[in-house]
Write a structure and sequence with these properties.
This protein is of the alpha/beta class and 409 residues long. The protein has ten helices and 19 strands.
């Protein structure tokens, strides 16, 4: 059987490697003419590291990133609300790792090229496809020139082509992103470690201005500087949506953070000193009732794009890839696609909905409500640490990375 994977991102390449490990042949078609290290930071939660470890890439990913030991929540006045241990420090069998997305993508790409050779095909942008009883015919154009490529015939097609998936658009012509007024700006800043240099920080609330901060590269120079990834998130009553991968304007959002100066961090200075500044809308898509149509299915962000609030997009996509590879190894037929859908559709839909309503930073929102968005003297008089822990644990259960859910691969 010829399996065609549309999209050579993290999920598409992980799927290709997973299929190869199970003795199945596939070919990956990536739209970009050349694979480059682009993007900013992502966090690999323990269940994402479990999947990478099963592919033999866990230690390499760990070496390229920073092992996080703590997740901490602060209000916009710099007061700590709650913190907890993460990864190995919390007793998980796998670490939690922050990493530059481009480094992780390149790790998977180099491994896939070394393993599959010319079956990793670039500069192939999907324009259309049609299927019949015997297979699927895919039509591509060159992203570089716009010229038509020779049609490709496959027995099974898996759309791993991201939030703006061409495969999904063909299956759902009216498909569109959901935007609710939250825009984001992302950057990376070279500086000395913040706190212990191994902490994932959520500061402020989406309602009055929030920033997520975590390190992604260690020891950049002899002074021990790190590359710090930060994401500013601001909710406004507007239909004006940021663009993707466009250079951001600091004046659009810096005023919100000008007075966020603490004894452990000057947030405005962190933003001003950024080496990169990109803008993005915070969008997702409503969960679908069906991913699989005959010989075609979806995986990763093409199947379930979600708010980047719980560091869960990469993990859920990697779990998709492993599940799909397992199902195809058991039954190399279109029926395997339906079996995969039956296992993954409901859990990922639940994560999408939870990221909208009760993401990890519900902790910040809840405290802001209780304090009236003012500094507190004794938070325990308003809400206990156990209650905050329960909010955190609830998200872990929904997303599938409660400690009890993470067994050794």
């Amino acid at each position: 059987m010829e399996i065609a994977i549309v999209g050579g991102g993290i999920v598409g390449l992980a799927l290709a490697l997973g299929l190869h490990k199970r003795g199945l042949s596939c070919r990956v078609y990536e739209a970009a003419p050349e694979v480059k290290e682009v993007g900013v930071g992502i966090t690999l939660l323990p269940h994402a590291m479990r999947e990478l470890t099963a592919l033999g890439l866990g230690e390499k990913a760990r070496a390229l990133g920073i092992e996080l030991t703590t997740s901490a929540f602060y209000n916009r006045f710099g007061q700590k609300i709650y913190d907890e241990k993460r990864g190995l420090a919390a007793g998980y069998p796998y670490p939690e790792v922050s990493i530059h997305r481009g480094r992780l993508h390149n790790l998977l790409y180099q491994e896939a090229v070394a393993t599959l050779g010319d079956r990793i095909v670039t500069d192939h942008k999907l324009s259309s496809f049609e299927q019949d009883d015997d297979g699927v015919t895919l039509h591509f154009v060159s992203s570089a020139t716009g010229d038509e490529r020779a049609p490709v015939r496959a027995d099974i097609v898996i759309g791993c082509d991201g939030v703006n998936s061409a495969v999904r658009k063909a299956l759902y012509p009216d498909d569109k992103v959901v935007f609710t007024g939250i825009n984001t700006w992302r950057g990376v800043t070279r500086r000395k470690p913040i706190l212990d240099g191994k902490t994932y920080l959520r500061v402020g609330s989406i309602r009055t201005g929030k920033i997520v901060i975590y390190p992604i590269v260690n020891d950049l120079d002899e002074d021990g500087c790190q590359l710090i990834n930060w994401v500013a998130e601001i909710e406004r009553p507007t239909a004006e949506m940021n663009d993707w991968n466009q250079g951001g304007q600091i004046s659009d959002f810096l005023p919100v953070y000008e007075d966020w100066t603490y004894d452990w961090l000057d947030v405005a200075e962190l933003i001003r000193n950024s080496e990169t500044l990109l803008e993005y809308p915070m969008v997702d898509k409503d969960p679908l009732e069906q991913w699989t149509f005959g010989r075609v299915t979806l995986a990763g962000d093409a199947a379930h794009p979600m708010y980047p609030r719980g560091s869960n997009g990469s993990a859920q996509g990697l779990i998709d890839a492993r599940t799909l590879a397992d199902k195809l190894a058991e039954d190399l037929s279109p029926a395997a696609l339906k079996a995969y859908e039956a296992e993954r559709l409901a859990p990922t839909g639940n994560v999408v909905r939870t990221n909208r309503s009760s993401p990890p930073d519900i902790i910040n929102i809840r405290v802001e409500e209780l304090t009236g968005d003012k500094p507190f003297d004794d938070l325990d008089l308003l809400i206990s640490q156990d209650e905050l822990r329960q909010l955190s644990d609830q998200y872990k259960r929904v997303a599938g990375f409660a400690a009890a859910d993470i067994a050794k691969a």
